[in-house]
Specification:
The chain has helices spanning 24-33, 47-56, 106-116, 136-147, 192-196, 288-294, 317-325, 330-340; strands spanning 14-18, 38-43, 79-82, 120-126, 150-158, 166-167, 169-177, 205-208, 222-225, 230-231, 243-250, 277-285, 304-308, 311-314. Helix 1 packs across helix 8 (330-340). It is globular. A six-stranded mixed beta sheet has the order 2-1-3-4-7-5, with helices on one face. Strands 8-9-11-12 form a four-stranded mixed beta sheet, with no helix packed on it. The longest helix is centred in the middle third of the chain and has 12 residues, at 136-147. By secondary structure, the protein is of the alpha/beta class. It folds into two domains: 14-198 and 323-340, Vaccinia Virus protein VP39 (Rossmann fold); 205-295, no CATH class.
Amino acid sequence: MTETKKTKNSNITTYFSMFSGIGGFELGISKATNNSWECIGHSEINKYANQIYDRHFRGVKNYGDATKIIPDELPNFDMLCGGFPCQAFSIAGKRKGFEDTRGTLFFDIARIAAVKKPKIIFLENVKGLLNHDKGNTFAKILSTLDELGYDVEWNVLNSKNFGVPQNRERVFIIGHLRGTGGRKVFSIGEGCKKIFNTMAKKPIIIGTTKSNTAKGTNSRSWVHDIKGIIGAVNSTEYKQPKQIMVQALRNFSRNGRLSHKDGYVGSIQTSGNEEGIWQGDRIRRLTPKECERLQGFPDDWTEYGKINDNQWERISDAQRYKCLGNAVTVNVIEYVARLIK
């Protein structure tokens, strides 16, 4: 379990987290800084995300709806971070951009930054943001940050290059407040691929749930080969989680356990019974725990949520899929946070 470090040391780096979800930014930052940076508050309105967040980051005040935050009522902080809602810019949606109320939430980031003037702004969004409305949407974001006094850099990073088998391209935006001595973060460009990319380069689609040959255009029915990587986990996984083809096991053990060839086999039993052998293929969906791993979270990070000091509640699989699809990949956040540090 991760808890935000509390201190009154004025020299510590502080940050405010917006659209926090289940704490992907917080977890990545804590790993990059060995818990030495302090989250002084966050903003999230999803009920289940908040329950999961409160379980892991106790005592961090939730300022709620970003559109209703009064900047002068926030403590001072050194960095503002957040993955502002991407549905308005994603190719999976209708791409209405700033015409969508979710798209306008960027301006709440700008509204708070205009008053609090953090030294660093650290944002994440879908790659589609770059070409939405022929680039005009991204140009508006850059010009807005420029007018607020920030020098901006950005880069597209893919989760598959950071130790998780997920093809997830996201644009990361770093704003440096002029006059604060900020240095470039993305100066090494995409060189990180040489270090981290040991996975297959793209998902391998072997068919659909309706046919073992047809690929079709509906990615919801695609079946992935377990030898490849998975496409981006998204917030609608609860409707039909991604499906993979795996080799099935025939069980000969009396205790009913099965072992996967890519995992560890259970303890050898004195009975001498075989624990399992290969027997053909089968299709199954990704589990919430696998989605946690694909996003770089510890196992069971989303299994329970905190209701109050004395009560935790199990989170439904549907909500776990949704929360994980909306999350950032922790490994990538940790990497960028190390560069910022």
